[in-house]
Automatic annotation (TrEMBL):
Source species taxonomy: Bacteria, Bacillati, Actinomycetota, Actinomycetes, Kitasatosporales
Segments forming domain NADPH-dependent FMN reductase-like: 7-150
Keywords: Oxidoreductase
Keyword Oxidoreductase: yes
Source species: Streptomyces roseoverticillatus
Designated name of the protein: NAD(P)H-dependent oxidoreductase
Length: 194
């Protein structure tokens, strides 16, 4: 049984100009670090521009970009995706990251944190569940959503409803921790798919 901290990769999906995503992602990273059970790695997709054309023989430039993000996904025991909703779906940058990888997602839990207008990004989050299921990942039940997100945070980047959001974050992190620990032990006993 491993006693090393679980590695949690928090993926910031938005790459749009003047995006609100960093506010939500930074809040969640602080909650995950305070939770105590995780070593947290924030992966900002604005810093890792992957092309939308997939290839089994990527160019040197794409290989370089992949070399900066793939090992971080590989090392993660769990993921949290912080995503907006664009036109009833999630950003193409996130789909590109997902599609460039396969085994890195397998037998690992995924939490979803969405934000947006009136729907709070729920449609984008719900579209991600079957995609991660297809990749043999385990989406946890509890998810967090911020409706009219820009109105839910103060000027310091903190949610105005600190109590409710803290409870939601702890619940999701507890579920991620349970699944991440169980699946890490299972992968150590027998590599997934072997």
């Amino acid at each position: 049984m491993s006693t090393s901290p679980l590695k949690l990769a928090v993926i910031l999906a938005s790459v749009r100009e003047n995006r609100f995503g960093p506010t939500v992602a930074n809040w969640f990273v602080k909650k995950a670090e305070a939770h105590g059970g995780f070593e947290v790695d924030l992966i900002d997709l604005a810093e890792h521009e992957l092309p939308y054309v997939l290839s089994h023989q990527p160019s040197a430039e794409v290989t370089e970009t992949l070399s900066k993000v793939t090992p971080r996904l590989e090392q993660a025991d769990a993921f949290v995706v912080v995503t907006p909703e664009y036109n009833h779906s999630f950003p193409a940058s996130l789909k590109s990251l997902i599609d460039w990888h396969y085994t890195q997602w397998q037998a690992k839990p995924v939490g979803l944190v969405s934000y947006g207008g009136l729907s709070g990004g729920l449609r984008s989050a719900e579209q991600l569940r079957p995609i991660f299921g297809e990749l043999h990942a385990v989406p946890v039940r509890e998810q967090i959503s911020f409706h009219t997100a820009w109105e839910q945070f103060d000027e310091n980047g903190q949610p105005k409803d600190e109590t409710g959001t803290s409870i939601a974050a702890k619940t999701q992190l507890d579920q991620l921790g349970w699944w991440a620990d169980a699946l890490r032990e299972a992968r150590a006993r027998k590599p997934y798919g072997k």
